[in-house]
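Objective 1.3, modelling of assemblies. Example input:
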Amino acid sequence: GESVGLHLPTLSVQEGDNSIINCAYSNSASDYFIWYKQESGKGPQFIIDIRSNMDKRQGQRVTVLLNKTVKHLSLQIAATQPGDSAVYFCAENMSTGSQGNLIFGKGTKLSVKP
Amino acid sequence: DTGVSQNPRHKITKRGQNVTFRCDPISEHNRLYWYRQTLGQGPEFLTYFQNEAQLEKSRLLSDRFSAERPKGSFSTLEIQRTEQGDSAMYLCASSLDAGLYEQYFGPGTRLTVT
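Predicted structure (C-alpha cells):
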C-alpha cells in the first residue's frame, strides 16, 4: 500500500462540538464500508458500517455518509467527548470479489480538547 | 469472553529467530483474518480463513510467513527467520461468515525484532 509516514492528518475539536472525519476510498466496485476507531495500543474497534445501497446511516452519536459519485465517506460524531480521542480509519470491501480483504484508508487522528 | 483474543500481546525477538502468534476468534465466527499494521498506517491484509481453509494470501505474505487454522477455531501465524522489517503490530479479526459482515479485531500482538 501507499506509504503515509508517521504523521497522520489530525482533527482537533473542542469537547461538545461535532466532528466530521472524511475518507476517500479507492475502488468504485466496493459495496461495503466500515468505520473503525483505534486507541493507542489497541486493535481497531468497529463503530458503524454502511452498504452501497444506502447514502446515510445513523448510530448512537455517529452518522456515516456515503457519496459513491465521488467515492467519499464521512463520519460525523455528535457532541464529541474526550473518550472519542483516537485514530479513525475507514475501510472498504467488495462483496463480489475478494471477500477477505478489508482495504483501510489513511487514518485521521481525532484530538478532543476538554 | 466474547471478543477476539490474541497471545502474546508483546514479543521481542532477535533477528533470525522464529516466532508464533495465536488468535482465538469469536466463537461461531467462520472467518478469521490476519492483518499487519505499522506505525502511522492502517492495517494491511495478510491472509484469511473460511473455517480451516486458507482462501487468500496477500503478496505481503512472504514465504517466511505461514498461517494455519487446523480445526477451524483458533489460528496461528508463524514468522520464520525474522527480520527487522517484520516489526509491526499483527492483528487478527473474525467475522460471522462471507459477505458483508463486520470484522471484529483483537488487541494485536506487537512484534519487535532487534
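Chain B is about 0% helix and 50% strand.
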